[in-house]
Amino acid sequence: IIVVSFMGFFTMAAQTNSRTNAVNEATFLAQEEIERVTYCSNNGYTAQAARDGKPVNLTNVDTSIVQDVNTGLYQVIVTVKDGGEIRAKMETILPFAEETDSTP
What we know:
This protein has 104 residues and is of the alpha+beta class. Helix content is 45%, strand content 25%.
């Protein structure tokens, strides 16, 4: 009986560790993407350039950059998904360089 109890305990602990590792990895990916977008903001990139600069291998990371017309600032939301389930989500507000109108 004692052995079975310990086996159940260790099984639950292993599942918890696995979930914790998945959340930690997702949080790391979200933080890395927020830092990349913040770098773009701080170094004169436009919001579109920040969108276009996302590494192609980050297929499970969605980055939304939307301008607030009232303030001119951009809301950046980074969502990390695994199997369709959201594992991490981070959000910040940043300024970006102005987009230039290329039409004559």
